[in-house]
Amino acid sequence: MPTTDHSDHLTGPQPAAPVLPIAELFAADLLPPRVPQSRSLARTAQRRLDELAADSQLAHATDQARAFLAASAMGNVATLSALAESCYQTAPAGATYYHAILRAYGIKAARGIAQF
After folding, report:
1. 3-state DSSP call for residue 53?
2. Are 66 and 109 in contact (CB under 8 A)?
3. Distance between CA atoms of 51 and 62, rounded to whole angstroms?
4. Whole-angstrom Cα distance, residue 32 to residue 104?
5. How far apart are CA 63 and CA 69, in angstroms?
6. pLDDT tens for residues 74-84?
7. What is the pLDDT of residues 54-68, one digit of tens each?
8. pTM of the predicted model, to two decimals?
9. Which of 53, 58, 75, 80 counts the highest number of beta carbons within 10 A?
């Protein structure tokens, strides 16, 4: 009795050749072909690209400075909080003032960072 191979029935038909992805779909730095431009247009485009690069570098530096200020302010608040607790142990009557000073520093620091 002849036997029939039904292995493709369980797994489905197999493709004849592997399907390869198109590189352009996965590579963000590849650009489509360009139409030749005039020198003036090319200079204008390059100038705008240079301005964009400068703007992004400035934005990055500003963000780094803001993060540094925030980290510094949080460290200062932690130090001042520990100092306020120590002062409270020594002179509990000043608790209202310790809290007010700490709160004023925190508010001023937060505003300064937000406006930076």
Report:
1. helix
2. no
3. 16
4. 56
5. 10
6. 999 999 999 99
7. 999 999 999 999 999
8. 0.59
9. 80
